[in-house]
Specification:
The chain is α+β, with helices and mostly antiparallel strands. It has two domains: about 5-80, RimP-like superfamily, N-terminal (GMP Synthetase, Chain A, domain 3); about 90-145, SH3 type barrels (Roll), CATH 2.30.30. Helices cover about 25% and strands about 35% of the residues. The chain has helices spanning about 5-20, 50-65, 90-95, and strands spanning about 25-30, 35-45, 75-80, 100-105, 110-120, 125-130, 130-135, 140-145. A five-stranded antiparallel beta sheet has the order 7-6-5-4-8. A three-stranded mixed beta sheet has the order 1-2-3, covered by helices on one side. Strand 4 and strand 5 form a beta hairpin. Helix 1 (about 5-20) crosses helix 2. The protein is elongated and about 55 Å long.
Length: about 150
């Protein structure tokens, strides 16, 4: 029997989520023994609603049940949207968060908050106090969306 890995689980689930029009954003396996939890994050342009999560949960659960990728030990499956607390790591994450404020850390250690502008496969425009600068993704170490209760220009 093989040990379940996020990579192996992702390989199984990618076609399932794609068939539903969703991106498989993250697979995380937590805990051990009978307390294992499989967290699956999905997303798409325009976001996902509760009905989409329910459909994805049914399809993912069926695929896992038809496979031996999780082994024989019990586990809890949790399917959710990507959520705003996850770092922006793919070009699609930046595109989907255009107009939002992000906390950014650059490769040189600089940290700042900026509003996300245009993005493409190679980089993103970030606006700080009206000045927009283009950043290649490989210069960004970490970026996380900030919750805005009272929208202000950054």
């Amino acid at each position: 029997m093989t040990t379940p890995t996020p990579e192996g689980i992702s390989s199984l689930l990618e076609p399932v989520t794609t068939s539903l029009g969703l991106d498989l954003d993250e697979v995380e396996l937590l805990g051990k023994g009978e307390r294992r939890r499989l967290l699956v994050a999905v997303d798409r342009d325009g976001g996902v609603d509760i009905d989409t999560i329910a459909a994805a949960t049914r399809a993912i659960s069926a695929a896992l049940d038809d496979s031996d990728v999780m082994g024989e030990s019990p586990y809890t499956l949790e399917v959710a949207s990507r959520g705003v607390d996850r770092p922006l790591v793919e070009a699609r994450h930046w595109r989907r968060n255009a107009g939002r404020v992000v906390a950014v850390e650059l490769i040189d250690g600089e940290r700042f908050e900026a509003r996300v502008g245009e993005s493409d496969a190679t980089g993103v425009d970030l606006a700080v106090k009206g000045d927009t600068t283009r950043f290649p993704y490989d210069e960004i170490v970490k970026a996380v969306v900030q919750i805005e209760l009272n929208r202000k220009d950054v």
